[in-house]
Amino acid sequence: MSIQQVRIFRTLLGFSVACLLAFNAQAALFDDNEARRAILDLRQKFEASQIELQQKFEASQIQLQQKLEPSQIELRQKFEASQIELRKISDDNLQLRRSLLDLSNQIEALRTDLAKLRGQDEQIAHDVAEVQRRQKDLSQGVDDRLRKFEPATVTVDGVEFVAQPAEIRAFEAALATMRKGDFATAQTAFLDFYMRYPDSGYKASMLFWLGNAQYALRSYPEAIINFKALITLASEHLRAPEASLSIANSQLELKDIWAARKTLEDLIKVYPQSEAAAVAKDRLTKLE
Asked: What does the pLDDT look like over 172-189, one tens digit per residue?
């Protein structure tokens, strides 16, 4: 029932009560029969008005109900639809959360696998590097061992030739002894080298250093022999001018001035552009 209908009902009820009271007041003025008829008539009118009012009220209720029912049904349908949609959204959210959780777990698993793979890659790289290093060391070792037995190309005093590993080691050992100032041992080493390798590519250089060792030991005749052997073997050798000057120095030590002068003059003629020739000129000037 609406507020307006309640107000109408209250107004009619008040009016009816007022009429009843008015008739009751007038009833005293009439006789009993007339009063009864009046009261009966008034009561009938009141009951008729109540019935009419009740019918109007019920009609208005029915009309209101008819107006409200479609809205209520529609509202209920919308509410139920919204509830269904809400439950669907809730289910979707729950499914989404589960999917996100699964995805997070998968990502974490992938990170773990990636970390393991990186560790494996680093280990593999380390192992490969270690294998390569060992292969390199092994190859180097093999090469070193092979070089100990295979001939090698060497260049000494501008001369290039092929020498055996033992031959190279023997000459370098004798030369190292010479440079240390142990001339007696160096002389023995060079003589032994000459006996073992008479046709060696080191021969010219060996004769030069052997002559120098003998000169240092004051064995001037032997030094002269070896210096001359060098010049005879290879007159264009890099050490030939020095060997010629050493011959002259040895002759001077032996007091053979004439022979020394002749050697110096020949040195200047044969090797005029050498440093030894400049020294020979100075020596000649002092000998005059």
From this structure: 999 999 999 999 999 999
Query: Rounded to whole angstroms, how far apart are CA atoms 143 and 207?
Result: 32
What's this model's pTM, rounded to 2 decimal places?
0.52
Confidence at 287, pLDDT banded by 50, 70, 90:
confident
In whole angstroms, what is the distance from residue 16 CA to residue 217 CA?
Answer: 168
The one-letter amino acid at 190: F
CATH number for the domain whose boundaries are 152-287:
1.25.40.10
**What is the number of other CB atoms lying within 10 angstroms of the CB of residue 139?**
10
Beta strands in the chain (DSSP E): 152-156, 159-163
Query: Cα-flanking dihedrals φ and ψ of residue 155, to 5°?
Result: -130, 120
Name 26's Cβ contacts closer than 8 Å, sequence gap at least 6: 38
The residue ranges of every structural domain in the chain are 1-147, 152-287
Q: Which one is predicted more confidently, 163 or 85?
A: 163
Could you give the CA distance from residue 191 to residue 188 in angstroms, rounded to a whole number? Answer: 5
How far apart, in whole angstroms, are the C-alpha atoms of residue 258 and residue 223? 18
Q: Which of 1-15, 112-126, 256-270 has the lowest mean pLDDT?
A: 1-15
Residues 6+ positions from 151 with CB-CB distance below 8 Å: 162, 163, 164, 165
Indicate the residue type of 156: V
| Distance (Å, whole) CA 276 – CA 58 | 151
